[in-house]
Amino acid sequence: MASKSSVPQYLQHLTVLEMAGLAPGPLCGQMFADYGARVIRIDRAKSPAAARAENPDTLTRGKQSLALNLKLAEGKAVLAALLAHPDVNVLVDTYRPGVLERIVDLDAVAAARAQAKTATPLVVVRLTGYGQDSPLAGHDLNYIAKAGLLSALGTEGTPPMPPINVLGDFASLALPAFAAVLVALYGHASDKRASANDSSSNNDNANAQSEQKVVQIDVNIVESLRYLAQFVSFARYNTETAMYRSDAPRGQNILDGQACPFYTVYETANAGEYLSVGALEPQFYTSFLDFLGFKAGGHNTTNANPKDTKPIEGIDEVLPNRFDRANWPLLRALFQHRLKQQPLAHWAARASRFPDACVMPVEPLAPPHLIPDAIVTGFGSSTPHGKQPQSSVGLDASKTSPPSPGLGGSKRGDTVTGKGQVLAPGTHSYVVLSELLGPCWQENYGPGDYVYQHKESNL
């Protein structure tokens, strides 16, 4: 398990405002928090019970909550002041196109940051499904349909299969948004260094970019998913590629369905227990056949050492060429018959003797508190030269423990939430405003209902 000290706090100099929203925005904010940034979720000024009933967001690790009534002028003024603050670096905009503009004037924010001679720009990352120019509403399924990837999911003769919403919301929005902000901040720092070292007219573009005080980035699921799917697109429309064929129906290629016998999922002896198989390369396919107890034959499938074959039933079968798709139904039936003879536990134990067979039991999705910290926090941490990081494969999930509540924000101690907790709106309102706007912030903005402090909080 990773400890607080093993999670690199590379972003501890950043302060991020996250407009409260649905799944991709909270995950984007959590990634910043996991690497040390101070993340302040801007909630609606309402009671915690009402907020939980509307959106029980549990992607709150390492975050603080400031609850503002953004329908009131005072609430809008407080948000504008926070965005103009030199210590605030990022705004994660989870609203539909046009909503943020009705709440805050970003040109005025840019002018205020310029007047204060803020060294770094405010990076505003706009998270949408179709982009800032589209008025259409939608959800993950609609966006991946528009991007074209949904058409490739499922089997022949059936409607495309809707996947769980990881593909669009998280893989194609939260993660690209996180990366886009880091690129923007790095680019600004690089431009500043370039302008400092080169004052010639050839560097006018770098000078102009380095002087930007508000940088807006549009990240949307449709374009991000099309970018991520380049490999699939190129392969599908390249007839020389074995993985996909443009004339093959959905689900009839190597990587996209149940037809391919060496890249698929098989049921084992116990109903509902499955084994995944991904034996693509020749050496892995050979190991997979050894794992099953078959003896390979035909083009590109011969065992390097037939004596290594370990039959399960005491017989050897000569199998047809796997790259002839006419042989796929037979191969799949043979493999399924063999795997149905033993329960999943048997095959899982046998897999340790054949590490190159590319097989893995299909495990249930682990509850969040059972996921190792090194996976939860994204990219893990570096290991000393010559030492291999501990693998999570085979990890006994029952022995794992949640990360420390301060993970990703330990410098704020008990002002942050732990893993999987519902962050009550307004838990840190007074702390945040006092630290960023000064202890006399109420004198500047006056009392009123524009800010909500969670009554159960001692902060």
Overview of this structure, please?
This protein has 459 residues and is α/β, with parallel strands linked by helices. The protein folds into 2 domains: 244 residues, 3-Layer(aba) Sandwich (Rossmann fold); 99 residues, formyl-coa transferase, domain 3 (2-Layer Sandwich). The protein is 34% helix and 11% strand. It is built from 16 helices and 10 strands. The strands form 2 sheets. A 7-stranded mixed β-sheet has the order 6-5-4-1-2-3-10, sandwiched between helices. Strands 7-8-9 form a 3-stranded antiparallel β-sheet, with helices on one face. β7 and β8 form a beta hairpin. 35% of the residues are buried. The N terminus is likely disordered.
Descriptive keywords:
single chain, 459 residues, alpha/beta, Rossmann fold, formyl-coa transferase, domain 3, 2 domains, seven-stranded mixed beta sheet, three-stranded antiparallel beta sheet, 16 helices, CoA-Trfase_III_dom3_sf
Structural class by SSE content: alpha/beta
What best-fitting shape do the alpha-carbon axes yield? elongated
User: CATH superfamily of the largest domain, called what?
Assistant: Crotonobetainyl-coa:carnitine coa-transferase, domain 1
Largest sheet: 7 strands, mixed
The sequence of SSEs as H and E is: EHEHEHEHHEHHHEHHEEHHHEHHHE
